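Subgroup meeting minutes
Present: P.N., E.W., G.H.
Scribe: E.W.

1. P.N. recapped why we're keeping a running log of single-chain structure predictions: easier to compare across weeks, and new members can see raw inputs and outputs side by side.
2. G.H. added today's entry (277 aa).
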Amino acid sequence: MSGFQIDSSECKFTLQKELNEPTDPQLAIDELRRLIKGDILLKSRMDDAFMLKFLRARKFQVKKAFKLVQNYFEAKEKNSRLFNLNFPSKYKVFLESGTVFMLPHRDQHGREVYVFRMEKVLSEITIEDVFKINLMILEVISEHSETQLAGMIVIADFTGFKWLKHYQYLSPYYAKKSAEVVQESFPLRFQGFHFINEPLYLYTVYSIIKPFLKEKLRCRVHFHGSNFNSLHKYIAPNILPTYFGGNLEFDPLTWVQQLLSKEQYLKELGQYGYNKL
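Output recorded in log:
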């Protein structure tokens, strides 16, 4: 049994209504494009599809969508070491390890599901590498119209966590950077964060970044420990792998090939950004 798909006009209409999307969004697209052109130091994509994903991320409030575009490119300018992406082929071995991937089916609300599995992490991969890989994944899935409408959720599985091997993945610095991406600088709707078998220190990290999170986002953070029934209250088990108490058996390598096929698209993103004076 597959997961929910946004394949009916009724479902799509409901999501578009939630985002205040007009029947014809062209006026909003043109207005956002005009504002971007007015930022003379910014070289941005100008196609309708690019405009639309930022408008959807800010529920068609054009000025807020414009601010998000600026934040998106400013993050790349101010944190070039993190935001200037490498390419999927560089991380092919890591990706094939099954550490990070998207589930093949959407959840019951039409959201894409991203999975991170600590026990699969390769020792040579740093937290900076994982941050960059996450950004690449977000860039790719943010192009999916269904995901722009319904959003995405994250499952972080800390099974197999060992302090000496994995402590870097609980860095407050990178946790705060990730929160900034989620809240301020990326055109996606992040609908839930689910932690499984989380170590105690994760609560300390969360307590550090929690004051920086908006109330809406704080309500979307869930800690499940080893209780899969708790997880299943939010995500139906029919789309979850067996190691999350679900029924699904699948090979993440299929998804890896899809990401690798986007190499040229990710390279082209490097041509956009703020011009230095």
